[in-house]
Write a structure and sequence with these properties.
The complex is a heterodimer. By secondary structure, chain A is mainly α. Chain A contains three helices and no strands. Chain B starts with a helix and ends with a helix. Classes of the chains: A mainly alpha, B mainly alpha.
Chain lengths: 119, 220
């Protein structure tokens, strides 16, 4: 038996010992799961950033940190118009489609009554 | 097409919206937020109308569920669509305000998250109505009731949980120079709301007539 074979044999022996661990009881698994969950929760709580106690008013911010407010205000106003017009345009299109269908059905009814009266 | 009264209301609402920037320009700036606070005039009324539309939808859904009135179901469907529209206005104007005053588009705090969930609830309602097939009316009515009961939580969330969002006490305590333009905009939104609901309801009624006529023809 060479030295390499001896090493391999030793590794196999250790692996065999490791894999032959007796079955872990259920309560131990539960306990382990509890410890893991508690540890994870504690870690999550610990790494939370501190709560914001106050904010800096825009007027006190340095000039480079300030955003121009007017474009945002105009955008908000424009958005209301876009949404409202968009909705009314969509609504009038849907109403036109339904009214066209109604007219078609009315025409069909007219044709049917004509053919019935001729028949 | 829309009938005369809603068209007249629509013209008045459009005129009020066109005049709104004049009143808003004369309103004073808020001390900490400056000019950007004026988004309040488009943002807050949108949420008022969304809540109103949700209450209309929820109550009408309750009537449909317990009294089986089809007209109430049509009203609920119309109100749900309008609620989603005003919610979309609120959810898009809010981030514009937040970006300037808080430095972020969306803070994921309790108020914004609950508001987003409320919007998604009514989008779910509309999807259920469109693709749910037969029986989806009752299911969506239940969903509308659930959505309606969420509104108080969304409203008081800013008072209960820690958030950067202004509290509900802000609007009642506004000085007259700021409150005047706000209530002007609320009135304009309310007119829009009435026109939208009546137009949408008319669409549902027309659809119901078409369906009934089709059934008559199919039976023949």
């Amino acid at each position: 038996m060479t030295k390499t074979d001896e090493k391999l044999m030793r590794i196999l022996f250790i692996l065999n010992r490791v894999t032959n661990i007796p079955v872990v009881p259920g309560y131990f698994v539960l306990l382990l799961a509890g410890v893991i969950i508690l540890t994870a929760s504690a870690t999550v709580v610990a790494i939370q950033p501190p709560p914001v106690e106050e904010f800096v008013p825009i007027g006190e911010l340095p000039e480079e940190d300030r955003l121009p407010a007017a474009p945002f205000l105009v955008s908000a106003y424009s958005l209301v118009w876009i949404f409202a017009f968009g909705y009314f345009w969509m609504l009038s299109r849907r109403l036109s489609v339904v009214e066209r269908e109604l007219n078609d059905l009315a025409k069909r009814a007219g044709l049917d009554s004509e053919t019935e009266s001729k028949g | 097409m829309l009938t005369r009264t809603p068209v007249a209301l629509l013209i008045v609402a459009a005129a009020m919206f066109a005049a709104a920037p004049i009143f808003i320009a004369y309103a004073p700036n808020e001390a900490t937020m400056g000019l950007v606070y004026k988004i309040v005039y488009f943002h807050v009324p949108a949420w008022f109308m969304m809540f109103l539309a949700i209450f209309v939808c929820g109550i009408a859904s309750g009537i449909y569920l317990f009294k089986d009135r089809v007209s109430a179901d049509r009203l609920a469907y119309s109100a749900a669509e309008v609620a989603v529209l005003f919610g979309a206005i609120g959810l898009t104007t809010g981030p514009l305000w937040a970006r300037v005053s808080w430095g972020v588009w969306w803070p994921w705090d309790v108020r914004t998250t609950l508001a987003l969930i409320l919007e998604m609830t009514f989008i779910a309602y509309l999807l259920l109505r469109k693709y749910g097939g037969p029986g989806s009316e009752k299911l969506s009515a239940g969903l509308a009731l659930f959505g309606m009961f969420n509104v108080p939580f969304v409203y008081v969330s800013v008072n209960v949980w820690r958030t950067l969002h202004p509290q509900t006490t802000v609007v009642p305590q506004l000085p007259p120079a700021m409150a005047g333009p706000l209530w002007w905009c609320v009135l304009a939104y309310l007119l829009l709301f009435v026109v939208m609901i009546s137009g949408r309801r008319r669409l549902e009624e027309q659809r119901a007539i078409v369906e009934r006529l089709r059934l008559v023809y199919d039976e023949d």
